[in-house]
Write a structure and sequence with these properties.
With 460 residues, this protein is of the alpha+beta class. The chain is built from nine helices and 22 strands. The protein has helices at residues 2-29, 137-140, 148-151, 219-222, 268-278, 280-287, 305-309, 395-401, 432-438; strands at 33-41, 52-55, 61-63, 69-74, 78-84, 91-96, 100-105, 115-117, 122-124, 132-134, 159-163, 172-176, 189-192, 195-197, 210-216, 233-238, 244-257, 313-325, 329-341, 348-361, 366-380, 443-456. Helix 5 runs antiparallel to helix 6 and helix 8 packs antiparallel against helix 9.
């Protein structure tokens, strides 16, 4: 009896050990696996450096090294991985642990097949021999700006878009691949729907009406335009009507512009102390006396003229268009309204623009069309970069240099036109608040562009 009990007990222990070993073996079998492989370019066989490798459905990923090799932990002995790299088509492949998996990526041809306007027609990007930059118009139109030239800043290599003073409605300077002339203009040539324009069209066109934009940078691409294209060419194609039911589009965006960083100014105590350090005999009579000491200015509230001159400015843009037509007649009618206030008080910009495009098939080979564009621009207010007879009379100098506290006999600075503590023959300084509130300085511009064409199709 005892022998049987011992025997049964030994059998039970043996079974338990076998079950535990099986569990451990199964757990190890279900544990993580390491997949190793190499990523190569399909045609040349060169390693693809920096390709992203990730198991399908898993968040973790690795990248290939300088030899195109990788190692990644997966959940099973076989796994499905995604391989991605810039300039190559994405690849999804099934791989196996325990061997080196070779993966080959095909070069992506999407960008090479993109249609590009080159001045004398259209071609695919892979056939372009010159330096041509295609602007991503959809991304550009997302920028909350009043003209497309502002949206070009930082978006195209070799193209600089800068503003002289930042006043709303001021024209921007576009320079392609640096300045080519010391004394003459470096502005590029604008070609809108095939018609060259010598002047900037940033404040004339509605950014919502631009279909595509290409920038020709080098001599081989601009030779067709002669000397006018020496500084580069900006080709703009506007949206036109298509056969079908009328399509009505309305776009509205609003925003607030704010000065991000202001200059740190002296408070009344720091200002008076500085004046005493410069000329104690002169300024003591202005600021000290009548039981007023230097320490008392620590408790005096001063004026930060930046808060008086600068403000949060409102921006609003409305765009409405109707496009449609038939097989023989196509039309596009649009209009836009821009209201932009400047961050300097009493400054702003207004723009009202309308456009009509009409195309008619007169026969199977003859087509005619007309483009009409009218724009009214108005900008007003103080021009921050304007030169004055005295440099201290400019608005920015007055805003930063005007004293923050009054004298013993003059406590209200906001009602005084001049700073009477200064010698006007050497330092002619005007109250910046009164200057911006009383300077209207409107500038009106009316621009009308009209062109027409007749096209005869000689050969298919």
């Amino acid at each position: 009896m005892n022998t049987n009990l011992k025997s049964n007990s030994a059998v039970r222990h043996l079974v338990t050990i076998l079950i535990l070993l099986a569990a451990v073996f199964r757990a190890s079998a279900d544990g993580p696996y390491t997949i190793r492989g190499i990523v190569l370019e399909f045609d040349s066989g060169e390693p693809v450096i920096g390709a992203s490798i990730a198991e399908k459905g898993a968040p973790a990923s690795v990248i290939t090294d300088i030899n195109g090799e990788f190692a990644i932990s997966v959940s099973g002995s076989k796994a499905v991985i995604d391989v991605k790299s810039v300039g190559y088509e994405a690849l999804t492949a099934e791989v196996t642990a325990g061997k080196t998996n070779t993966l080959r990526l095909h070069t992506s041809n999407n960008l090479l097949n993109e249609v590009v306007v080159v001045g004398y027609g259209t071609t695919t990007r892979k056939d372009v021999t010159g330096a041509v930059a295609k602007v991503d118009v959809k991304e550009m139109q997302k920028a909350p700006v009043s003209n497309f030239e502002e949206a070009l800043a930082g978006r195209v290599a070799g193209v600089q878009s800068t503003s002289g003073d930042g006043q709303p409605g001021s024209e921007l300077s576009i320079v392609i691949r640096g300045n080519n002339s010391v004394t003459q203009s470096n502005a590029p040539l604008y070609v809108v729907d095939g018609f060259p324009l010598e002047t900037s069209v940033g404040n004339v066109l509605n950014p919502e009406e631009i279909e595509s934009m290409e920038i020709l940078k080098d001599a081989s691409a601009t030779a067709i335009y002669g000397a006018r294209g020496a500084n580069g060419v900006i080709l703009i194609t506007t949206k036109k009507g298509k056969a079908g039911r009328p399509v009505v589009s309305y776009n509205l965006y609003m925003g607030v512009q704010r000065t991000i960083k202001k200059q740190e100014m002296l408070d009344p105590y720091e200002f008076v102390r500085y004046q005493l350090d410069v000329n104690e005999a002169l300024y003591s009579s202005m600021y000290l006396g009548n039981e007023m000491t230097l320490e008392d200015y620590r408790n005096v509230g001063g004026i930060d003229w930046q808060d008086q001159v600068l403000r949060d400015a409102f921006l609003m843009n409305h765009s409405l268009s109707v496009r449609g037509g038939s097989d023989n007649t196509r039309y596009a009618i649009s209009g836009s309204v821009v209201h932009q206030d400047g961050v300097i008080t009493n400054s702003g910009y207004r723009k009202y623009q309308g456009r009509l495009n009409l195309e008619q098939n007169l026969s199977r080979k003859v087509k005619a069309g007309v483009n009409l564009n009218y724009t009214y621009n108005k900008k007003f207010g103080t021009i921050a970069s304007e030169q004055n007879s005295s440099p201290t009379a400019s608005i920015m100098y007055s805003m930063w240099g005007y004293r923050p506290v009054g004298t013993l006999w003059q406590s209200d600075l906001l009602d005084n036109l001049f700073d009477d503590t200064l010698d006007p023959t050497r330092d002619y300084r005007i109250n910046p608040v009164m200057a911006v509130r009383n300077e209207y300085n409107p500038m009106h511009t009316n621009t009308f562009i009209a062109n027409a064409f007749v096209q005869y199709k000689i050969l298919d």
